[in-house]
Amino acid sequence: MSRETEAPAAMPTLEDVARAAGVSRATVSRVINGIRNVDPAIQDAVRDAVAATGYTPNRAARALVTRRAETIALVVSGAGDASEAEQNAFAAGVFADPFFGRVAAGVVGYLRPRSMHPVLMFAETPDARDQVVNYLRQGSADGALIVSTHAEDPLPAMIAAAGLPAVLFARPAGLVPISYVDLAHQDGAKLAAAHLLDRGCRNLVTIAGPRDVAAGHERLEGFQDAMARRGFPYIPVAEGSFTLRSGEEAMARLLAEHPDLDGVFAANDLMAQGACLVLREHGKRVPEDVAVVGFDDSSVARSSRPHLTTVRQPVEEMAAEMARLLQERIEQPGLPVTSVIFEPELVVRESA
Amino acid sequence: MSRETEAPAAMPTLEDVARAAGVSRATVSRVINGIRNVDPAIQDAVRDAVAATGYTPNRAARALVTRRAETIALVVSGAGDASEAEQNAFAAGVFADPFFGRVAAGVVGYLRPRSMHPVLMFAETPDARDQVVNYLRQGSADGALIVSTHAEDPLPAMIAAAGLPAVLFARPAGLVPISYVDLAHQDGAKLAAAHLLDRGCRNLVTIAGPRDVAAGHERLEGFQDAMARRGFPYIPVAEGSFTLRSGEEAMARLLAEHPDLDGVFAANDLMAQGACLVLREHGKRVPEDVAVVGFDDSSVARSSRPHLTTVRQPVEEMAAEMARLLQERIEQPGLPVTSVIFEPELVVRESA
DNA sequence: TTGAAAGCGCTAACAT
DNA sequence: ATGTTAGCGCTTTCAA
Question: Looking at domain A71-182+315-341, which of 3.40.50.11780, 3.20.20.140, 3.40.50.2300, 3.40.30.10 is its CATH number?
Answer without folding.
Answer: 3.40.50.2300
